[in-house]
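Allow me, if you will, to draw on your knowledge of protein folds for a short while. I have a record of one protein: its chain in single-letter code and its fold written as discrete structure tokens. Kindly check, if you would, that the fold set down in the tokens agrees with what the sequence suggests. Thank you for your consideration; the sequence and its tokens are set out here:
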Amino acid sequence: MIRNTPLTLLALLCLPLCAAAAIEQKPGLWSNTIKIDMGDGMPQLDPELLAQMEEMGVQIPVAKPITQEVCLTPEQVKKNALPDITDADSGCTSRNVKRQGDRITGDLECNGSIVGKGNLQMTLASAESYSGVTAFKGATREGMPMNMRSEFSGRWLSADCG
């Protein structure tokens, strides 16, 4: 399980869009993986410091891919929705979402713990998988610039969410 951080919230924001494609997703347990690239805007962490932070339970979303399991209920499939995985503090929303076949594009806008704009592109490959990318440019509430790109994918694990 991951902690909700501004970076992971932004990357995960695009996940509800995958349910809007022509292919209907399977309900059940899904594994979502996000790889975040902060470009030159994020200082490099010393591998020793990174290992110490991970031992303490701190997850750094730009250090390695993040995986999160999410349950998609039959009701959510019918409504073309996924669970809300963002928190109110993120202030991130999607706009201008367009679908052509199983390809989805849209704009991202954040006015909370991070402020800025971006876009996303996603393809629903089957009822059991999807992948896509996001690009975002903005800043944290404290003024640290962000120029982020993320790649994400999801795969269906089982009908039982446990």
